[in-house]
Design goal:
Elements: E1 2-10, E2 22-31, E3 38-45, E4 48-54, E5 59-62, H1 65-75, H2 78-102, E6 109-117, E7 120-130, E8 135-141, E9 144-145, E10 150-152, E11 156-157, E12 163-170, E13 179-185, E14 192-195, H3 202-232, E15 234-242, E16 245-253, E17 264-266, E18 269-271
Antiparallel strand pairs: 1-2, 2-3, 3-4, 4-5, 6-7, 7-12, 8-9, 8-13, 10-12, 11-12, 13-14, 15-16, 17-18
């Protein structure tokens, strides 16, 4: 694994003149081993790299005619080469700090709590301040993985080398069940299991009760409304006179859902002629 300890882009080094643009890039490349730390300096103009210095080769290489001329002059400049050695030593100094960190792992702080989202009780398993980034959170109920009703965030960078992540489970409490959040991370050689404690304070129990009641009431009202509409479905028959002609009318009122089909039958056979229908 390789770490770019410094990647400094000095885009203001060259002024933009008639659409021409140039920049230099300075890097310290720190591999897993301290023996191969590199200092690299490159210069680019109009999207073409025209020279580069690599401390592994201890010289500047030109890639264009202009770059080759500059490289020839710079390689004869002992002051410039001495400055390159100074920067390389700084890279090594920082490398001695970063290489030991590269193998470090920091275990997450895990919290399971109850939340209420859109009047639904939600269990949240949060892992904070862990390193490295990769982590896996899963929910289990009575030692079986819960595959549905689960959403998770991506690992979020805290900006201080540490990360956080959150997993959400829709919570429908059942007597005697055991719910746990399983965390898999490089800081532990086995999964870390955190159990949800149903013995909550009064305020948390109220959240669950209110959420469950609200959900039940919503289902009840929806079912009641559907029954109401079903009961209100009516079909009436009548005779309407139009242009002195008797016209049988079949009307359907107050139905739900929208798709409906009305047909006329004469002696158990569908009548297709002289039939008109419309929706209102």
């Amino acid at each position: 694994m390789q770490y770019n300890l410094m990647a400094v882009v000095l885009s203001a080094l060259f002024e933009t003149v008639h659409g021409h643009y140039g920049y230099v890039e300075v890097q310290c490349r720190v591999p897993d081993s301290k023996q191969h730390i590199e200092f690299i300096f490159s210069a680019t103009y109009n999207m073409i790299e025209y020279l580069r210095y690599n401390s592994s080769e201890s010289k500047i290489v030109g890639y264009t005619e202009f770059g080759k001329k500059l490289a020839e002059d710079y390689n004869k400049n002992n002051i410039l080469l001495a400055q390159s050695e100074f920067v390389l030593n700084e890279c090594k100094r920082f490398g001695e700090f970063i290489v030991p960190i590269s193998g470090t792992t920091v275990p997450p702080d895990v919290v399971i709590q109850l939340d209420n989202v859109n009047h639904k009780p939600i269990l949240v398993c949060s892992a904070y301040d862990f390193y490295p980034k990769h982590i896996r959170l899963t929910w289990i109920r009575d030692d079986k993985v819960i595959p549905a009703d689960v959403t998770s965030t991506e690992e979020q960078n805290n900006g201080d080398w540490f990360y956080q992540v959150h997993s959400y489970l829709e919570y429908f409490p059942k007597p005697g069940e055991k719910i746990s959040c399983v965390v898999e991370h490089a800081s532990s050689n086995k999964p870390m299991i955190y159990h949800w404690d149903p013995s909550l304070p009064e305020s948390e129990r109220s959240k669950i009760i209110l959420g469950a009641v609200g959900l039940s009431m919503g289902v009840f009202m929806a079912a009641g409304g559907l029954i109401y509409y079903k009961r209100k479905q009516t079909v009436s028959q009548g005779i309407r006179k139009g242009n002195e002609k008797a016209v049988p009318v079949c009307s359907a009122y107050d139905f739900y859902h929208k798709p409906i089909k009305l047909m006329w039958m004469r002696d158990d056979k569908e009548v297709t002629a002289d039939v008109m229908s419309w929706l209102s």
